[in-house]
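Hi all, long-time lurker, first post. I run a small reading group and we've been trying to get comfortable going from sequence to structure in the token notation. Rather than ask abstract questions, I figured I'd post a concrete chain and ask someone more experienced to write out its structure so we can walk through it together at our next meeting. Sequence below, copied exactly:
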Amino acid sequence: MAEEHRVAGHLGVAAEEYDAAIRTFIPGYGRMIDTIVGWLDGHVPAGGLVVDLGAGTGALSAAILDALPDVRVELVDIDPEMLEVAAARCARHAGRLTLRRARFEEALPSCHAVVGSLALHHVTALADKADLYRAIHAALEPGGLVVIGDMLIHPEGPERRRLFESWYEHMGQHGITAAEADAHFAQWAAEDHYVPLPDELGLMAAAGFRRPECFWRDAGLTVYGGFKDA
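-- Answer (accepted) --
Happy to help. Here is the structure in token form:
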């Protein structure tokens, strides 16, 4: 079993500082959250359940609970410190949320949607990610959907270089020097595994999602997903 992912060690920030820090690291973070929520709107029935994989501080879950007052959300994360922050953040929605400390490979409940934000790149083996997409497809009710926001980057080539140039530029605009960015990427490399968009869509298609699609993209940051047939 893989070592637990802890944000304090991975990003070098405490859980309660994550929300501010992530915007300095990731371009388009707010737009990513809004896009995921937008795809759920109208597709999750009243009383339906959304499972947030790698929920972290609950930023995505809170946005869903705020925008869709008739849905329920289960926040899943392995990091207990992050779950504590998420619980406090979403406390006003008590009765519509549950928190579960679990790994991605643990069983998913029957649900109407599965979401994730900057979490699935911690699944380092493609075989494990293929298994995860199959488990998501099996857990979804007919007509349900999966919507994921993550960095999707080729392992080499001019596409990768250009995306990283954009990424460094964003970090520089937030006071992070190139040397500091180099150190961050070196630290993250042990746990982060970026997959190109075509490969992610291919894994989803193999899992049973017939029309997986890219819903939005800004440089490497991508929102993608698919529907389970009704």
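A couple of things your group might point at:
The beta strands are 49-53, 72-77, 97-101, 111-117, 140-151, 213-218, 221-227.
The first strand starts at residue 49 and ends at 53.
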